[in-house]
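Propose amino acids for all 94 sites.
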């Protein structure tokens, strides 16, 4: 019986959760992050579509497109890991 009373006391003394305003603020912040994620995914899809179009057509300008998109991505999110960068021109090794 004392265990039941003790459980009831713990339940009554627990801290209240976030207020309605706090929950709304958290939701808005997470929703903004979700919208940014969707925008990034849309931009990435456009880049992939452009690359696919270039690959299906002639190869003219593909290297320039890849370099431009790499520079855009670096400007947006910063440089990637060092292992992603070519050491010299290894075009012949592909």
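Proposal:
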């Amino acid at each position: 019986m004392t265990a039941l009373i003790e459980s009831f006391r713990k339940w009554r003394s627990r801290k209240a959760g976030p207020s309605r305003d706090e929950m709304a603020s958290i939701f808005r912040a997470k929703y903004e992050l979700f919208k940014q994620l969707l925008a990034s995914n849309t931009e990435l899809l456009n880049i992939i579509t452009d690359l696919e179009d270039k690959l299906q057509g002639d190869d003219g300008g593909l290297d320039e497109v890849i370099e431009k998109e790499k520079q855009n991505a670096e400007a947006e999110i910063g440089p990637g890991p060092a292992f992603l960068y070519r050491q010299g021109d290894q075009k012949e090794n592909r």
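The chain has three helices and no strands. The two ends are 76 Å apart (CA to CA).
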